[in-house]
Amino acid sequence: MKDFLKILLVVVASLVAGAYLHKCQSPPGDIPGREDCVMDTVKVYDTISYIEPAPVSTTPIGFINVTIPAPAIPSANLDSLPDIRADTAELASADVDATAPDSLTLQLPITQNVYEGEDYKAYVSGMYPSLDSLFVYPRREIVTIKKPPKRWHIGPTVGFGYTPHGFEPFIGVSLTFSIIEL
């Protein structure tokens, strides 16, 4: 009987070692249902809106000359024309030159406004530039890695075990293999 138990123990140990070595030699993709890990990637685009942001800095770039047609003002009856006064506080740097009797050349300032936030930087150039709104679409990737549970466990065990004296209560450390994953 003792020889039978020794032979049975050697056969079981050989089967376990062979199964473990076979698993190590073949790639995990070859064994159905046994992948090392499962990765799931989700791409998310958030929308961040900035409505009427204030410029951080304003820099004059230069001037642009614009020729516009001059209105034809009759020389007679100048006293009967209405007195028109224009608000030129915003156009303090605009110069008007009369190049021809039928046109005027305006020298208009070109400025560059810089709008800057935590996740954006915008440059807007032109005559009196302003940025109405800015929409930023940052991309984030959420990667979830799920590893399969381990099948072999070593830990404390309480139960019944087969000994040379028959079935007896057992308390100790044992090596277990999980057959069913819950």
Automatic annotation (TrEMBL):
- Entry superkingdom: Bacteria
> Per the record's keyword annotation, is Signal included, yes or no?
yes
Q: Which UniProt keywords apply?
A: Signal
Q: Which InterPro entries match?
A: DUF6808
Domain named DUF6808: residues: 102-180
Matching entries from Pfam families are given as: DUF6808 (PF20647)
Q: Does the keyword Signal apply?
A: yes
Instruction: Give start-end of the signal peptide.
Output: 1-19
Name the UniProt record assigns to this protein: DUF6808 domain-containing protein
Q: What is the lineage of its organism?
A: Bacteria, Pseudomonadati, Bacteroidota, Bacteroidia, Bacteroidales
